[in-house]
Amino acid sequence: MSELLDMLHQHKIVAILRGIEAQNADRAAQAIIDGGVRLLEVTMNTEGATAIINQWRTKFGDGEARIGAGTVLDVEMAREAVAAGAQFLISPNLDEEVIAYGVERGISVWPGCMTPTEIVRAWKAGAEAVKVFPMASLGVKYLAEIRAPLNNIPMLATGGVDIDNIGDYFRAGACAVGMGSKLVNLDWIRGGEYDRVTERVRQFVEAAASV
Fold it and tell me: How confident is the model at residue 141 (pLDDT cuts 50, 70, 90)?
């Protein structure tokens, strides 16, 4: 088990930052870390994503958090993200070239998969874990069903998680969840309400830990 996979199992939540503005990024990341989340993802379709990844690696290093790139659709994006300092790569799709790129460089890749066939293909290609997506549409019953025959493959469930159902995802077999706007409210960040962001994150961290 790699360090990143171990952290995924241990901390259980990946914070997804999509559309975060560069001027708010550092304080937003600190607020999330203060709430207890240690895995932060900037999506590559965020303006200035690579610059934010780079500045987070510089500011937070390897001590406080691990910084990754999301919405990594192909190898070109993977190269850009890794050059900026990304420590893990997450995508909404399965691209085996991206997995191979990560394996060759010791970078964790958690590709997006929906079907059992995609999940097994990703696993055989070298992915340590897969992102089951879109969970908001598939539902936790779907996750429980595919976990039964594929229980040896760690699954990061992304989509539809809220404070009331987060426990259901873990009981259905997810090792972790990916969370965006339900975890990190960009309006609060833009309004400078960082304490409010921290408190929201802490609530989710406590809920995950209680399962």
Answer: very high
Residue tagged 């999940």 (tokens): 119
- Note the pLDDT of residue 61: 74
- With 90 as the cut, is the pLDDT of residue 62 above it? no
The Cα diameter of the chain in Å comes to 46
3-state secondary structure of 110: strand
Q: Which of 64, 97, 128, 131 is catalytic?
A: 131
Catalytic site residue from 3, 21, 41, 128: 41
Distance of alpha carbon 31 from alpha carbon 191, whole angstroms? 13
Active site residue 41: yes
Is it the case that residue 42 has pLDDT exceeding 70?
yes
Kindly give, in sequence order, each residue whose CB lies less than 8 Å from that of residue 202, ignoring residues fewer than 6 positions away: 35, 36
